[in-house]
Amino acid sequence: MVPNGFQHIIGLGNFPCDWLISSADEITEKITKGTTPPKSEIVEDSNIPFLRVNNLGFDGVLNSKSEMLFVTKQAHNGFLSRSVAYPNDILMNIVGPPLGKIAILDDQYPEYNMNQAVLIYRCKEKLIDNGYFLSFLGSELAQQWLQSRSKKTSGQQNLTIQLCKELPTPVPPLPEQRKIAQVLSTWDRAIATTEKLIDASKQQKKALMQQLLTGKKRLIDPETGKAFEGEWAYVQAGSIFATRSNKKHNSDLPILAITQDQGAVPRELIDYNVSVTQGSIAGYKVVEIGDFIISLRSFQGGIEYSKYKGICSPAYVILYPKIEISDDFYKYHLKSFSFIQAMKSRLEGIRDGKIISYKYFSEIKLPQPSLKEQQKIASVLTTADKEIELLEAKLAHFKQEKKALMQQLLTGKRRVNIAEIKVATEETLEAEVA
């Protein structure tokens, strides 16, 4: 049932009756896509970026961490002239998965170009606000409409130019569009600021790990009030860790997924669905809390740690400490860049898809500071991790709040107050609504 004062748009939902509903084609000056030029037209010294899907993100701006290619001015003004783009043009990828990457072009460059997987929207300024249309285009409303109509072939998703032109777009009065864009951009700034803080915290932690886990920086011993002293012992890993291959279980323990970012975790916690037979599970190894696991990817991401008791594939090598150690110290060390590089150097030639055996691991030299220093180092790094986790929780909250607000503002369920426009701050991230 459509509420009073609302109109229903098939495939999109209910919108206020005083809003126009236009196709994207009606509110834009241009909708087109790019072309891929010959490799000879890709250069390093041009002032014309050639954008691809990897240059777009889900946050409405170009991905600054992605590799940027450039195209010759001759190609740009020649056979690529159809897809010349300018600052304030809006881009969206039309080849996926994933679909839904969008970006508004800034004025870092006067002109841009792109390949055939990227679409350009150029808005009619008198009809549609760029910021508002960018928000709508990246919303679940627009993306569900587009993606439900995409062509799916051989694992790809494709949007046609015609479909992108037909996208039904709710068009409030321009002042209301601008206010909606202003409110949402405030959340975008808070999200961007938090993401930068997370990146900076991760870089600081990385530098801290490099210093602390190699002994280049020594922490204060709380008992003496002075820095820890003495050279670290470096011993073979086999003198610290032993291996076990316990298969005595009733298949009633959780199956653990061995991941590079979360360590060993129950599969159901990360939606990791791989079918296994009861017969194969019988041969799985028991993993105890505090065990370390060598995987096929340990050459890339180090050795994983388990906070869970469970079972894992017999392909993995299970390690456990044979002497008293700080689990957290070695959890960090065995994932550190310096350890991974040392392991690669020591085991050169045996890592072509083969797992590192306990024998090879046992011969690698590991640092062995005093237990007190291990614990102090682990404490500092754990604190750094907790700070990152708090920032990531804050970021998730901002994104969820923005998503909920978008759903309300872009459908007119909540109307912004045009009479008195106030810019929300990061501390008061609530839209002023009538």
TrEMBL record:
It comes from the Bacteria. One of its GO terms (molecular function) is endonuclease activity. Residues 381-408 form a coiled coil. Signal peptide: none annotated. Keywords: Coiled coil, DNA-binding, Endonuclease, Hydrolase, Nuclease, Restriction system. Residues 18-199, 236-396 form the Type I restriction modification DNA specificity domain. One of its GO terms (biological process) is DNA restriction-modification system. It holds the Pfam family Methylase_S. Belongs to the type-I restriction system S methylase family. This is Restriction endonuclease subunit S. The lineage of its organism: Bacteria, Pseudomonadati, Pseudomonadota, Gammaproteobacteria, Vibrionales.
